[in-house]
Amino acid sequence: MRLFVGFKGKNNTSRILVEELSPVHLLLTNSFTGLRKDIDSISKKYDHVFIFGVDKTLTSEVRIEKYADKEGIRYASKLDLHKIVESINTAEVHAVISESPTSYLCNEAYWHALNKFSGKAVLIHIPTIKHMDKHLTEALKQALEENNKTTLSKRPFSLEEVSKSELDAKLSHSYRQARSRQGKHVNDVFDAIDENHWN
Prior knowledge:
21% strand, two-stranded antiparallel ribbon, disordered C terminus, globular, alpha/beta, six-stranded mixed β-sheet
């Protein structure tokens, strides 16, 4: 199940778009504290969360954000962004993927959504009402409908999720398990490795 999320505002194109995409949608409060409470209230029953934000520098294209960054902690979307781009381009709208996190409310909302839904979210920036014509709206609706079965990528959710100590512990545990399953000859090899590496 998908949830479409936009921002409140009479002339905010993200609000206009999500209301056209689905009767089931969420409009975020335009404040850091408010939007966090809004995202915290979202049920975890949703498989994917699509957040739409407005960028006044866009005219006839959309930009898909790969990362969200907050206080040095960076999360990446686990959705197949290239498949989303392909679907949008097929609908005759130019779409690009950005690897540079944005700032302000959109980044804040995206960061909290990625954190809550373990990477199963994406932020898509769209033009302002001045450039968001009917063709662009219909093209996005068509693309998202075709992309309804969005697959997850195999990329880790966050590089910061596992600390070095946790990783060492996991490797050590796997190493001990591997030794317990080997015969004497192979364990002799492990002993040699122990003397030169682990000690």
